[in-house]
UniProtKB/TrEMBL annotation:
<dbReference type="InterPro" id="IPR006268">
    <property type="entry name" value="DAHP_syn_2"/>
</dbReference>
<dbReference type="GO" id="GO:0009073">
    <property type="term" value="P:aromatic amino acid family biosynthetic process"/>
</dbReference>
<dbReference type="InterPro" id="IPR006218">
    <property type="entry name" value="DAHP1/KDSA"/>
</dbReference>
<protein>
    <submittedName>
        <fullName>3-deoxy-7-phosphoheptulonate synthase</fullName>
        <ecNumber>2.5.1.54</ecNumber>
    </submittedName>
</protein>
<feature type="domain" description="DAHP synthetase I/KDSA">
    <location>
        <begin position="86"/>
        <end position="323"/>
    </location>
</feature>
<dbReference type="InterPro" id="IPR013785">
    <property type="entry name" value="Aldolase_TIM"/>
</dbReference>
<dbReference type="InterPro" id="IPR041071">
    <property type="entry name" value="DAHP_snth_FXD"/>
</dbReference>
<keyword id="KW-0808">Transferase</keyword>
<dbReference type="GO" id="GO:0003849">
    <property type="term" value="F:3-deoxy-7-phosphoheptulonate synthase activity"/>
</dbReference>
<dbReference type="Pfam" id="PF00793">
    <property type="entry name" value="DAHP_synth_1"/>
</dbReference>
<dbReference type="GO" id="GO:0016832">
    <property type="term" value="F:aldehyde-lyase activity"/>
</dbReference>
<dbReference type="InterPro" id="IPR052899">
    <property type="entry name" value="Class-I_DAHP_synthase"/>
</dbReference>
<feature type="domain" description="DAHP synthase ferredoxin-like">
    <location>
        <begin position="1"/>
        <end position="67"/>
    </location>
</feature>
<dbReference type="Pfam" id="PF18152">
    <property type="entry name" value="DAHP_snth_FXD"/>
</dbReference>
Amino acid sequence: MVIIMNPDATAAEIKSVIEVITAAGLEAKVMEGSQQKIVGVIGDKTKVADVAIDVMPGVEKSVAISKSFKLASREFHPQNSVVDVAGIKIGDGTPVVMAGPCAVESKEQLFEAADIVKAAGAQFLRGGAYKPRTSPYSFQGLEEEGLKYLAEARERTGLRVVTEVTTVEAIESVVKYADMLQVGARNMQNFGLLKEVGKCGKPVLLKRGLAATIDEWLNAAEYIMNAGNPNVVLCERGIRTYETYTRNTLDLSAVAAVKHLSHLPIIVDPSHGTGKWRMVKPMAFAAIAAGADGLMMEVHPNPAKALSDGPQSLTPENYQEVMAGIYKLSQFMKQENITSMDI
């Protein structure tokens, strides 16, 4: 439920509304709307069913939230959220780029990749230290050693670090080294993990599950937010369909859908979304045109020798070409005042 205050509501009137909510054992969150303040109510709204909130001084009306995801809903939070990751803002209108190898293979490989992605304009270095692979015989990652390399690469380049956390037990280690925790597609509905990353104090990148609906995805975000962490960024990385040419089917309509349903920022991963490096460039451009707040791309110094996801990784040259086009497109959209809602 949200309580919409009159534009001229006083601080005392807002305080009175909050007191009624908290007295009923519910939580109140005050948010600034474009012209008026909104008080969000978290908890069982039946606890205030007998309270005539709509006739309280300063109240314009109360509105029930129809979505099962409350905190992630745009009904609850009408304005777009901007997530700050160690000074880098995601969702403020300038696309961010997270780039790097699928897996941290060695210090030398990671440092070379970090220099490449930094030089072309990325703000984040991505790289997996813990790798949940389909086959138990595939490379599983360097674990804490890989995390240390990521932290060293951050010190060398100034890039922020985003890396995947796969188990509750690994959260403590990942928090120590990373700026942002990634919950991968295979763990999108690992509710125990979602609750714990909600308590970790670091921003979270939540990838869409292999065959998850948008509703399921936003409810997964709700688990993190309900545990106390509002700093969630969504990542569309393709879903599994009957199509076999691409690794997944990249659902760019999810960008527009999420922008309508939720205030959370959303980025797109065209590398996992297609599984083919040749398709990363056009899908990256399409994602920005659709209104995505950023991109996640796999870049490897030598994709032919990559221990994982080589076929979808960009070479340094291809990556630089993609980056140049992304920022040209973004600038064009700004100059022409084109937003995702216009497309």
